[in-house]
Amino acid sequence: MRHVEIAGAGFAGMTAAIAFAQRGWSVRLHERAAEPRAFGAGIFIWENGLRVLKAVGALEVAMQNMHEAPNYWARDQHGGIVGEYFFGPEAGTRMITMTRQNLHMALLDAALKSGVELQCNSEAIGADPSGVLHMADGRALEADLVVATDGVNSKVRDSLGLRVTREQVGHGAVRLLLRRTEEEVNSIEGNAVIFNRDAGTRRLLQVPCDKENLYLCFSTSAADEAGRQLPVRKDVWTQSFPHLRALLERVGEQGRFDLFEVSKLDSWSKGRVAIVGDAAHSMTPALGQGAGCAMMNALSLATHVSAGTDLEYGLRNWESLERPLTEHTQDYALQLTLGSVAASAGGTKWTPEAMRTAVHVPTGSVGNPSEQKETQACM
Ligand SMILES: Cc1cc2nc3c(=O)[nH]c(=O)nc-3n(C[C@H](O)[C@H](O)[C@H](O)COP(=O)(O)OP(=O)(O)OC[C@H]3O[C@@H](n4cnc5c(N)ncnc54)[C@H](O)[C@@H]3O)c2cc1C
Predict the structure, then answer these.
(1) Is the CB of 277 inside a 6 Å radius of any atom of ligand 1?
(2) Residue 276 CA: which ligand 1 atom is closest?
(3) Going residue by residue through the chain (379 aa), what tens digit of pLDDT does each one get?
(4) Ordered domains of the chain (ranges, CATH)
(5) Which atom belonging to ligand 1 lies closest to the Cα atom of 97?
(6) Is the CB–ligand 1 distance for residue 43 below 6 Å?
(7) 287 in ligand 1 pocket by Cβ < 6 Å?
(8) Are 283 and 332 spatial neighbours (Cβ–Cβ below 8 Å)?
(9) Cα dist. 158→17, 90, 136, 265 in Å?
(10) Residue 214 CA to ligand 1 centre (angstroms)
(11) SS3 374
């Protein structure tokens, strides 16, 4: 039995842990916090992410508390609709939204059921390419493979001496949850995902997540002091979006502000250490795909390195086959964030190029061509 030590129990770490356990590895998953929990508010999961969740056995639980919006509206600062999009089978992807906590709990449930050993209060401080994970309490844990999924400020990645490019893109967002009103639950507008855009840098995204929760994402330029302030400045945001006055009145003290960052590495692995998720490929949230890519790359990592006994060959294959789609997603999302895809200003954000990741069939999920070949070979 091969053994993997994984640092960081976020969406990437949890998915990797389950996928390795499903392939017969013994798995220890370390989380620095006292308990595994998701920060942020709501999250979009597209068909690619749903396929990963199905493959790791977390889909059914995740879908018990979610929202499938019938439509997506782009609105100008006065509330005028400048674009309307529909998702579903004809578009090749559903647009599913839920709270982060719901997604996290579904993955945790599947991880524990698949025999993953989870250690909380367990902080990784670095790794050795020979396959050793170093912990803050002095332990040096040997493994066939170490996986760094400790997020954008990854200590494990930084200990490896890889060349890391981290680009602060000059934008960020405040995210929070509100309780949905009965009127919202029962109206067409209250069930749509709505992207409001003012003439400057302010964007306000309204996202129903389930029957109770409405996720609001206030994004703006990092230089917009008033727009990024916490608690949210209702006066300032009402000035940008007067038609949302009543909604903004309901916002309280809650929320957190995060800056967007795009990170790239010269290699996704070094020796027996692989880096996955925001630690390797963080992106701006314009396509709602950071966690989608993190989960796809975690599942495909387990698939590639479990396919044979040559670990380094598996790691090379993994990166060369999976990285192009992730980089396309990072680059396209960045262009949308910076407004340099001309179409994003009007209403045609969801072009086929924008949707390429969402409709992808991830390696390791049912329906992926390599999986079909594997199945045929077994028959
Ligand atoms: C405003 C905003 C909106 C977004 N919206 C979406 C969306 O709609 N859809 C989508 O797919 N993505 C979205 N994303 C991106 C998504 O949140 C991230 O890509 C995703 O959370 C990355 O998951 P991860 O597991 O790699 O890292 P993280 O979620 O950061 O998890 C890292 C984990 O490692 C733990 N950890 C950290 N350091 C250590 C250590 N040294 N030792 C042990 N444990 C450690 C942390 O406590 C944490 O649990 C959004 C991002 C932002 C900023």
Answers:
(1) yes
(2) 26
(3) 999 999 999 999 999 999 999 999 999 999 999 998 888 799 999 999 999 999 999 999 999 999 999 899 999 999 999 999 999 998 999 999 999 999 999 999 999 999 999 999 999 999 999 999 999 999 999 999 999 999 999 999 999 999 999 999 999 999 999 999 999 999 999 999 999 999 899 999 999 999 999 999 999 999 999 999 999 999 999 999 999 999 999 999 999 999 999 999 999 999 999 999 999 999 999 999 999 999 999 999 999 999 988 999 999 999 999 999 999 999 999 999 988 665 554 556 788 999 999 999 999 998 765 554 443 332 2
(4) 3-45+101-167+263-378 (3.50.50.60)
(5) 8
(6) yes
(7) no
(8) no
(9) 21, 43, 15, 10
(10) 20
(11) helix
**Measuring CA to CA, which residue among 295, 286, 327, 363 is closest to residue 50?**
295
Tokens read off for 229: 């302030």
274 touches 7 (CB < 8 A): no
* Residue 140 β-bridge partners: 134
Ligand 1, residues 31, 168, 281: which to mutate, most atoms within 8 A of Cβ?
31
Model pTM?
A: 0.96
Q: Return the best residue to mutate from 5, 6, 11 for the ligand 1 pocket (most ligand atoms within 8 A of CB).
A: 11
What's the one-letter identity of residue 92? G
Residue 102 exposure: Cα atoms within 13 Å on the Cβ side:
23
Residue type, 60: E
Q: Please give the span between the terminal C-alpha atoms of the chain, in angstroms, as a whole number.
A: 25
Nearest CA, atom 7, ligand 1: 288
The residue nearest atom 27 of ligand 1, judged by CA position, is 151
What separation in Å is there between the alpha carbon of 290 and the centre of ligand 1? 8
Q: CB neighbours (10 Å) of residue 310?
A: 11
> Is 259:175 a contact under the CB 8 Å cutoff?
no
291 C-alpha to ligand 1 centroid (Å)? 7
3-state helix, strand, coil in the chain (%, to 5): 40, 25, 35
- Tell me the DSSP string of 34-72: SS----SSEEEE-HHHHHHHHHTT-HHHHTTS-EE-S-E
Is there an atom of ligand 1 within 6 Å of 5 CB?
no
Nearest CA to ligand 1 atom 41: 124
